[in-house]
Design brief:
With 92 residues, the protein is of the alpha+beta class. It is built from 3 helices and 5 strands, in the order E-E-E-H-E-H-E-H. Bound molecules: zinc ion.
Length: 92
Amino acid sequence: MSITRHGERLQVCCDTCPASYPNKYLAEDFGVMIADARTAGWIIRKAVPKRSDNDTTDLFGAAPRVAGRAVDEPYTHTCPSCISPNREGGLF
Ligand SMILES: [Zn+2]
C-alpha cells in the first residue's frame, strides 16, 4: 500500500520506510501528486510484472484466458531518503 487515502485526499507513501510525501491531493489531482512527488525527489515508476515464458500456444493452439488481473498496485514508490541511503554521511 503506497497510496494512502485520508478522507477525500490521497497521499504518496514510501514502499520501504514509513515516510510519506507531506502534501495530500484530491483523487482527481492524482497526476499532479505524482508529478510533485517526483519533483521532490521521489521515484515513482511502474513495476514491471515478471512474466514467465510458459507459452503453450504452439502445443495447444490459442490458450484460454485465465483471469489474470493484477491484485497489487503496479507502481513502486520510493522516497528520497531510501534512494540515497548514505544520508548520515553528510554531504558526500
Ligand atoms: Zn523511504
